[in-house]
Amino acid sequence: MVITLVSLGCPKNQVDADILAHSILKAGHTTTTDMTQADVCIINTCGFITSAKEEAIENIFNAVEARLENPKLKIVVTGCLAERYRDEIINDIPEVNAVVGIGSNGDICDIIEEVVKGNNICRYGKKTDLDITAKRIISTPKHYAYLKIAEGCSNGCYYCAIPLIRGPHRSRAIESCIEEAKFLAEEGVKEIIVVAQDITAYGEDLYGECKLHTLVQEIGKIEGIQWIRLMYAYPERLTDTVIEEMANNPKVLPYLDLPIQHINDRVLKSMNRKGGNEIIKDAVARLRKAIPNITIRTTLITGYPGETEEEYNELCEFVKETKFERLGCFAYSEEEGTVAARMENQVDVDVRQQRADSIMMIQTDIMAENQAKMTGKEIEVIVDDYDNENEIFICRSVYDAPEIDGEVYVDGKSEVEIGDIVKVKVIQSDIYDLYAELV
Ligand code: SF4
């Protein structure tokens, strides 16, 4: 069969799609990005907040439209939207031929056979049947890849639907993670981006304690891996052992994604976030003390039920004081099935968004200030791509994760190749990006 595989959402969902793709290719099928040439289109959806759900539904209807030109096209929906809204998809989008829960990703080839025979399929294994140790392809540019070290989440933040969708936290064994990291290195990957819903919970279930530092140490021993980037840490769980490993392991980048969501103790408590104001400030202080040039990325939510103007102002002051190097702020979005969605004191939708926009205004000034300080500095970058039109290399520094952070532009005549890790000198900056020359 000829298969189109569209993957939406976060890097963790991308890894699931890479595993689906590996099964499909191993079964002898081929892939195309052109749905009008395909027998089956698989849409690996995201479904954790409203905007993601809208994007997923839009992609499903793109496939329905493609079927007008290609009547044999079968549509299979996998991923978080399928896991969360099985009945709604079946009832509201009858054009869909199969809805597949994350626990049945392993059956993808059998499901393809069935839909091509004309059968409509609804298959839902247990969430915990999702095999995150399965073999995968690498769909990112070959010099970097995401390594998913655990699935699900047990933190139970009251606004979050992920535990409802992905199930409880379950770590992969260290051996399984290392085996995949070695495969990635053999395939030419130099930057491994370690992801999970909460990487700081890694190992607690399997080994009775956090083993993130041990895993990072082992990844650091793999030849070919030059950069290790850590994403999605939980402030309350950030141990000194992990910070020491980050500080002492030369391959671990001075970068950490540390979503805090808010800073006011009452709001954090009503979000069911473990650890309050002091723990968050302490985590940031410990990181900056141990790794002076660290880039901390964080995520905030404004307009959470009951958030007062005073509590919001406290958050604004904290953002001004802390000067995070990278920050994203989202207006609270009610998610069915979550505790927060049932709370009485919902904040007006426009106020939620106004608060988020104002925080991003504050952050824009901080970004411009931080970026300006980079001028004249020598930094390491990885070459992600070449822009033919503008004749420049598009790179990322040690301080930039793919897709969510800034870029570093280097003159196109420079003696570099895509995938190289090189030293450059920053000659100019703007709010998000830098312009540099090869050293
Ligand atoms: S830590 Fe909280 S916000 Fe993050 S995935 Fe888990 S429940 Fe959701």
Shape: globular
User: Cofactors and ligands present?
Assistant: iron/sulfur cluster
**Class of secondary structure makeup:** alpha/beta
- Alpha plus pi helix count: 14
Which percent range describes the beta-strand content? 15-25%
Task: Give an account of the 3D structure.
By secondary structure, the chain is of the alpha/beta class. 35% of the residues lie in helices and 22% in strands. Helix 7 (174-186) runs parallel beside helix 9, helix 9 packs parallel to helix 10 (240-248) and helix 13 (309-322) packs parallel to helix 14 (349-372). The protein binds iron/sulfur cluster. Iron/sulfur cluster (SF4) is lined by residues 153, 155-157, 160, 162-163, 197-198, 234.
Key words describing this protein structure:
single chain, 439 residues, alpha/beta, six-stranded parallel β-sheet, 14 helices, binds iron/sulfur cluster
Quick structural summary:
This protein has 439 residues and is of the alpha/beta class.
SSE order and pairing:
Blueprint (H helix, E strand, L loop, with lengths): L1 E6 L3 H16 L3 E2 L8 E6 L4 H20 L4 E6 H5 L1 H7 L5 E3 L7 H9 L4 E3 L20 E5 L1 E2 L10 H5 L3 E2 L2 H13 L4 E5 L8 H4 L4 H9 L6 E4 L9 H9 L3 E6 L7 H6 L6 H14 L4 E8 L6 H14 L3 E6 L17 H24 L5 E10 L4 E6 L10 E4 L9 E9 L4 E5 L1
Parallel strand pairs: 1-2, 1-3, 3-4, 4-5, 5-6, 7-10, 10-11, 11-12, 12-13, 13-14, 17-19
Antiparallel strand pairs: 8-9, 15-16, 15-18, 16-17, 18-19
Helix pairs in contact: 7-9, 9-10, 13-14
